[in-house]
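Handoff note, outgoing to incoming analyst
You'll be picking up this chain. Sequence as last confirmed:
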Amino acid sequence: MTRLADITSPTELRLLVSFSDLTGFFRICLTEDPEDLFDLISSYYTFVGDIIEPSGGTIVKFIGDAALIVYPEEALEAGVLALRELQRSGDEWLKGRGASSRHIIKAHFGLIWCGPMGTRSEKRFDVLGQTANTAAVLKSNGFAITPQVFRKLGPETRKIFKKHTPPVVYIPTEERHQERPG
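Most recent structure output, in case you need it:
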């Protein structure tokens, strides 16, 4: 399996690129004590890592309540299932800590440039390209994957999703069709 952390120069790969974001986090920031908020988010980062890393994923970065997560092509299906688990168990984890928030997760698959990026003194693995942009702007009320991701899934995993249009995205079968916010 491709170990993304071992990449030492700019490399073009086919990756599953996903974003996870928490709803209502701004409201939580307004009411939480800063030290309690720090502890909550620190614990949350560990929680996310405990789901994503064993499934072959790499957490590229956290930005407050959001995460940029990638999977190599050979771990795409495991990645989609792990992202679903992150949404399901993550929402329960948040609820158990009194956070009125839930996960919005969206993913796209395609070519992406990746490798170490940063300042002269500190470089970290990162990704850049249209695949990341597509994933970032994908509309979702909960969990959405593009047709490019759906086509890479096996028949059993495909049964978890249904087509949602326009534009075409696939959402879990238990999610309602509804107009997505612009």
